[in-house]
Amino acid sequence: MGNSYTAEFDLMGNLRRECSPKENASEEQSRYWRYAYDGMDNPIHTESPLGVVYAKEYDGESRLTKEIHPEAENGEGISYDYDTDGRKIRTHYPDGGVERSFYDAEGNLIKKVTPNHYDPSTDDGAGTTYTYDAGNRRTSVTNEAGDLLEVSRYDAKGRCVYHQDAGQLEASREGMVYATTYRYDLAGNKLEERKAVSEKDGAIQYSLRRWTYDIHNNITEEKTWLTLQSETSASGLTCTICNTYDKQNRLIRVTDNLGAEVKYTYNSIGRRTSEERKVNAEETQLIKYLYDETGRLTDRAEKLNQKRKGTWWAHTRYAYDANSNITEIQFPNGSRIQRDYDAMDRLTSETVTDHISGQKNTTNFAYDKAGNIIRITDECGRNEQFTYNLMDQRTQEITSEGRKQKLVYDKEGNITERQLPYAMSYRYQYDNAGRLTAVIDPAGNELETVSYDRAGRRIKLETAGGSGAVYAYTAAGWQTRIETKGGASQSYNYDAQGNVTGICDGNGNETSYVLDSWGRITEIHKADGSKENYAYDFAGNITEAVDGNGNIRKYAYDDNNQLKSITYPDGSEEKYLYGIDGNLSKFQDRNGIVNEYQWNVYGSMTERKAGDLRNVYEYAPNGQLTAAISSGMDYRYSYDKDGLLTAKKASGRTLLAYTYDELGRKTSQTDITGRKVNYKFDQSNNLVDICNEVDQSIVRFDRDADGAIEKIPHANGMWQDIAYDADKNITSLTVATPDKLLAQNTYRYDGNGQRIEKNELTGKTLYTYDSLNRLAQAEYPTYTERFTYDHAGNRLTRTAKDIEEQYVYDVNNRLMQRSINGQAENYQYDQSGNLLQDANNTYEYDDFRRTSKVTTNTGNTQINRYDAEGLRYEMEENGKLVQFIFNENKEVITEQEGANITRLIRNSDLWAMESEPEKTWYHYASDEQGSTIFITDKTGNVKNCYTYDAFGNTIESEEQIPNRYKYTGQQLDPITQQYYLRARFYNPAIARFTQEDEYHGDGLNLYAYCANNPVDYYDPSGYYKNPAGEMIGGISKREFDEYLGDVEKCTGRKIGAEQRDKLYEFLRTHDVSCPVDDATYEAIKDDFDKRATKKRLRSEWSEKNNEEWPTYEKNNIGNNKIKAKGKHNYDLHHIIPKKYGGPNEWWNMIPAASPEQHQGGIHRAGSIYRKLFPEG
């Protein structure tokens, strides 16, 4: 390729200087790496082409005694001491830490004392100890606390035949010894691994895995049993993977026992040239690779089959400089990434060019002498600065807007303090093993304390406010039970590979799962006797879903492994088509309406159109949303240099403007009227006051140590008191004015945390649930209503007072008929499942599947208009115009015809309303579900009051002022008597939505509201149910939902119900271990990169997958990195923000090496999750 590398050596053969191919090819004077040696030929001086000096010192025995840090001014660095046998016994770090090592006579390490435990007075301390057998093979590991962590035994050939890990040792007791045993063939290949994982009826149960090999010691078969085994058995369900190799021992074919198949081809130097994967019986995914003369990947081509366009290839191409650094990536859609590097091969700039707008954004990186990033800038004003100590730990971060934070570490690199503006500081405590045990907030509250077993598993959690949970595990580390302090619990059963096979809730209701050989759920057996079935293709995609009534929904996928069609039980079909970049380009619904999409280089939507509708989205070069344009509304967005939204405009007018403090918290919001609302926070970072423009309080929040709201005083004298149990369930709610007690409610809960009793001034309400936790009966003070459901989750009957209702559904779970005491009401739908007509209304929809018009039988009309944010910004009610301005999906301004403007004061709930025409304030009080129960005027007089049944029907209502916000705080349309829940409309009279859920990940019933449990859940988005009233880390579940809603809105992707539930449960019951914020993100990454862990994991990946590690270029750009619209980057795998984007290479590796750092690192500051993760 014409590249040349030059090197010069001295007479002793020592390399004196070298010049890289890139420097040799430079038109400027070549720059060299230069080396100097002492008299013993030890390298003592290395100078980089940029003048960075790396110095080392050696003793008379040529042992390295010191490595001087490149940034040191006085020769500081890492120094080493040796014993008389030349073994390293002490490592002295620049921060004063000392690591001490002890050895036996054979030179085996028998004890290591880490810096936090080293005592210079004794030259010793608590440490990890090791023992060995006569063959110098390690037989045990014991930690600083004296806990035995590992035990190993070996055969005569030195192969490990018996091993106990920390989890097995924790579970072992007299007569019940948990261990893993291994068998080998004569060549030393592992034949069997039998691991003790759990027990049943007093007998230990094992997981089992076996391997077979060919004569070249290649694995030809790997068999994994999913059925738990005894000490000698080998029976039951297995997953079998077979490998075939060519004459050069290269893997060319992989199959499983279900018919999946992957084929590989190679070139003459062993580079993989193609991958062919069976997606299903009809579709095969084909990827080809091309390389240059040096073996570097230059082209990745993926075959795409489009019926109308034939076969074509999506090419991703790579270019390199003379040093093999990637300098350009060309994506199939024409977008590009270009990179420059310095003479030390460090990335100095990256330019992203969008194929649609042609915009370019260049991000520049600067480094200190040690290679740490000290500055990041771009063309959009980004200018982030970082400083480090001589341990290469990031100690300060200054954002582009000058916001600062400092980090303090202990001698083992654990973050012990995070210092923020306003003298705020979060502190962190750790146990002897370096595990986070406590988080202390700036106010001194010990937010969470955590206890661990010897295996490092969390066994107990307690919060500052008294909440907490205990956890139990199998020997394999599978969580078998969680029980909260309040008594709610859940237990789990597993197969031999750790897949959940059964769940028992706190009320004893059991759900069991039947799995295939890959651990995928094929049957769900529910507590009521119903069953759901699922089938999969070779790639693991769901191809068939059968609900409890036997209705079948089918899914088909293309050769690129993307969903191409859904066939519903009635035979109607939706179709999907994708562009060359893999993004959705066309969608045809069951009515035949086609939606078309375009996306930019960041994966953000730039256009959506269908019929006469067209939404256009514009972005800054760095990917921030700058405009969202629809036919009726043109929004423009402005941001500060940290990416925080500062203004939202339309038609030249500022609709909303925001200011932020040095922590990035929103401190004020100014609306279109010019009126300002200010926000104030306490030392624990909780919102404690919402004030008017002259800082007079509108509503205040007094909180407990967990951040949960205990008292809400309003400016008009009304107040609310809230008390909680140990699980943060609301146990009492009081609402009063200075002159009158308005509400005094108490509550009780069952073993699932479900509300079973509500006592009010007007009487008691009792709730009863069926075995699927659906509301079966609500016994109100004056009447009782009962419900039954079919096996698909459809309501079959409702009885109340003298009324009996019966419901009939079709195979798509659409309500077709409702009979009230024998009087039938019929319902009609279009092919896409949109309700066209019911007993009272006729409905019309636009081509984006949004309700555009409703006409009642009495002649009333409602017309809805939507903006490019997907929200209803305008409506006409019988010709009268009503307009809305939204902040984070919530209405903050309502303007009716004649400039009748109302301003809404809200965050998680609606607290107050200012009426412009009346020049007065009204204050709202909500119940445990966030439903409006009282509205009082500025003097505390009650103007409106409401009561609701469980599903949101208004039982009683007294209104002196107009109000739209009622059940769960959502907007009730007076003409239709339905609730606007953003994505869809909810009809409480039948407890169903008027349209199918666009997202299919929240259960197979696409119409039922909150899985028929409206007491414990609510749905503000129209997409999924959310637990109501709970608190997570000091914020309400509503704020948690806002955060996930932001992710979904910004990425255009829906988060799966299982993911949501797991994340919610984790946050409700766990601490985010080892918090890592933006300031330490890169530091941890750099440290990780420098360690051998990265190399080892790369090797393991290659061995297990027979392919190269998925690098930044392959895995980070495109579908995995989604640029948020105006806020953050989101990594969909984690459903959390990532400010710097990638590389995913590190995020995929770090869990294997440091799972706690991984968990902490992915949750960092920037949005509502500041409260979810206050430590980061």
From TrEMBL:
Residues 341-459, 535-710, 724-1015 form the Teneurin-like YD-shell domain. Keywords: Repeat. The keyword Repeat applies. InterPro entries: HNH_nuc (IPR003615), Rhs_assc_core (IPR022385), RHS_repeat (IPR031325), T6SS_VgrG/RHS (IPR050708), TEN-like_YD-shell (IPR056823), YD (IPR006530). It comes from the Bacteria. NCBIfam families: Rhs_assc_core, YD_repeat_2x. This is Teneurin-like YD-shell domain-containing protein.
